[in-house]
Amino acid sequence: MAGAGLGGLAVATALATRGWRVRVHERAPELRMFGAGIWLWENGLRSLRLIGAEEQAIRNAKRIKEWAVVDQRGNDLFRRSFTDDDKMVLPVRADLYQALIDAARTAGVEIVTDSPVATAEPDGVLVLADGSRLPADLVVAADGAHSRIRESLLLTDKISYLREGYIRLLVPKSPGDEESVITEAWHGSRRFLYCPSSDEEHYVAFSCLVDDRRGRTVPVDKDSWRETFPTFTGVIDRIGDDGRWDRGMTVTCRAWSEGKVVLVGDAAHAQAPNLAQGANMTFTNAVSLAAAVSSSQDVPSALRTWEARERSLTDHVQRWSHGYGWMVSMWPENMADSRTKFLQFVTGIPWVDRQLNRAARHIPVGDQP
């Protein structure tokens, strides 16, 4: 397997718990996770539970009661509540990563660091950068949105760079901070996201167009963002000098597999983070993948069957996440009030609610009653 990120470790653990002997090759010299917080929807939590990582992952996390999206005047665009059967939990990303590392090792997964992968061959050979050829019954490419394995097998259909990008950070918690409601504020083509994450830190994110030079500056241009979102001045003041700007991108593939080689996570379906379902869909697909290849002697056929089962939902989430961002980045700023009225109307339609929450309410393979 190539890549020991969130998706790679999830697939590795799901396979190992079903009796597979799994080795993960990671190019970095040590296992480290960049990032801030992460939204774990119900489908992601259920998937983590199936591989034994849920309890540790959310031990220090905040349980979210509501996601509130507001416009520049503080008017609600929409609100989304959570329940015991439809949860949202928001851990620090490093805590989730450590939980996946520990679950993988407990399941017997071997993790080899400082071991970059060059390519893979459809008959089930992983080729390392040093020329080593490693035959396998299944090769998993979890090597990210710029996957070398995907490119070498010509599985890419389209890579799209979006008009928007993101800066994601952790800020220290302060007395009086909101601890159970996510607030996402929209103003023109900018967004500010506040997410309670733990007893020590909160996750915040800034989103703006790629040509918004002050908006994409790192360290964050606090004056510029305070002017746009004065309500969050107290939080913005706590931001440090870390962080990075990441441009949004999407990846679509002509197929998720070739022979005995399969793509997972961002290598298969990188998407805009607007609905925060990228990792959750990866976890859901991971447990389904392990189930599919463990119940068939014909791995290539099992991979095609798995893709046919999972891809429609994954593609749906990718499209709706992109559309969500389009509402911010493409709507004319001088028509912000009409955007508010439009969103207030459409988010009250039951069909729209079902589309936005289709993934969150999906029951992963192996978790059915």
TrEMBL record:
Gene Ontology molecular function, alphabetical: FAD binding; monooxygenase activity
SUPFAM superfamilies: FAD/NAD(P)-binding domain (SSF51905)
InterPro entries: FAD-bd (IPR002938), FAD-dep_Monooxygenase_BioMet (IPR050493), FAD/NAD-bd_sf (IPR036188)
FAD-binding domain residues: 2-310
Pfam families in UniProt: FAD_binding_3
Alphabetical UniProt keywords: Monooxygenase, Oxidoreductase
PANTHER family in alphabetical order: MONOOXYGENASE, PUTATIVE (AFU_ORTHOLOGUE AFUA_6G14510)-RELATED
The protein's name: FAD-dependent monooxygenase
Protein species of origin: Pseudonocardia bannensis
